[in-house]
Amino acid sequence: xxxxxxxxxxxxxxxxxxxxxxxxxxxxxxxxxxxxxxxxxxxxxxxxxxxxxxxxxxxxxxxxxxxxxxxxxxxxxxxxxxxxxxxxxxxxxxxxxxxxxxxxxxxxxxxxxxxxxxxxxxxxxxxxxxxxxxxxxxxxxxxxxxxxxxxxxxxxxxxxxxxxxxxxxxxxxxxxxxxxxxxx
Length: 184
Known about the structure:
The protein is α/β, with parallel strands linked by helices.
């Protein structure tokens, strides 16, 4: 079977603008046209203080939102942190192992835009081309407008855990592609 591999990632952040401090990154490689999700995934918690020194931002409204999330989701704030430059290099290495045709985020102006800004903060070229940007949120909207009562796929893992969210979004996109009977 000839797989078309795509990357789905999810970010947890301290702001909602491109300069947001990245709390965690979860990513998986998958084929949207089948049920294949690669076993090797990526998860990292970049050091927030070092990001702040680079001018990355936090907002009061986002931090207030975090205070309302589950203890499981908020546990990321107690997790060991890694030098952001190391995280970005490791993520680029992860992506380079695959021939990625599309890079999916949950919002046309959120995950991919923040990641491009994050790479630029460290003067590292993003490891994907802008024309590979894809929007999972748009695909969900198409499914919801096409299928009355569309409820998505069964949720596994912790909401607002970046890796759990990325895996869920990949499974959901696979279900949407199958339901719409399209190829991505």
